[in-house]
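Ops channel
N.P.: pipeline sanity check, posting one input/output pair.
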């Protein structure tokens, strides 16, 4: 076992499971879908190390006592609270086509995003009509939940309700740094002064690109139009690439 730079224990290679509520006590039972996955897919056996969290930073670590039809019974050895990382990363993601929305959420979650905002941009090919908004948001939240476990993060990123351009502008105005990815921007992301605390917001447009009106509105809200490099990335991967670049200058520094 090692200790992270946040001052909390780490279990190298130990799987993470998530429960809505983390029960107290010296033992806990991981049942339901999580328990079935642990027993039937991962085939965890007595003595193996695991972590169980509530997705909000509370984590219990321990060892498997038994694995069976009722689930995974775990002897808890320690509990700890993991603080949220600083700065906070917010990804404003225009709705991509097909399954690229959950892909964008998956990649951003693995790379440390704290909040994901689905955005109904003017040129989005995908449209969440009134009867599809709840389903679309639920699908993104499910992707964030799964990616949190895969990347063994103690916090599940928030996926907000679908927002309009006007609502996005109000949010960007409150950020310590807001950037809008634009292939025609002259200023590279690498040329910006990156705050080491507060909130950093990244806006990623749709496959059809941003409209001039959207760019003007975001700039008026205080956002900087930037480019990552000479390549034009897909909307589903641009956010993740930007988060990685920001982490190199903040969290991973």
């Amino acid at each position: 076992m090692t200790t992270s730079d946040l001052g909390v224990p780490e279990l190298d290679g130990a799987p993470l499971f998530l429960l809505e509520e983390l029960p107290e006590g010296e033992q806990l039972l991981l049942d339901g879908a999580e328990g079935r996955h642990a027993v039937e897919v991962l085939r965890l056996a007595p003595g193996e190390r695991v972590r169980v969290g509530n997705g909000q930073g509370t984590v219990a670590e321990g060892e498997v006592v038994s694995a069976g039809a009722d689930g995974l019974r775990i002897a808890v050895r320690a509990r700890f609270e993991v603080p949220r990382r600083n700065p906070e990363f917010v990804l404003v993601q225009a709705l991509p086509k097909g399954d690229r929305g959950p892909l964008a959420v998956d990649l951003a979650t693995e790379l440390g995003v704290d909040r994901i905002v689905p955005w109904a941009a003017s040129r989005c090919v995908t449209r969440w009509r009134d009867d599809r908004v709840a389903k679309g948001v639920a699908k993104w939240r499910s992707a964030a939940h799964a990616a949190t476990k895969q990347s063994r993060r103690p916090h599940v990123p928030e996926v907000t309700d679908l927002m309009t351009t006007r609502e996005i502008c109000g949010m960007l105005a409150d950020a310590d740094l807001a950037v809008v990815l634009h292939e025609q921007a002259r200023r590279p992301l690498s040329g910006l002064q990156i705050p080491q605390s507060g909130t950093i917001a990244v806006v990623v447009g749709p496959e059809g690109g941003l409209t001039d009106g959207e760019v003007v509105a975001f700039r008026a809200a205080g956002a900087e139009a930037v480019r990552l490099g000479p390549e034009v990335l897909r909307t589903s991967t641009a956010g993740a690439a930007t988060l990685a670049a920001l982490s190199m200058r903040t969290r991973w520094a």
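N.P.: looks fine end to end. The first strand starts at residue 2 and ends at 3.
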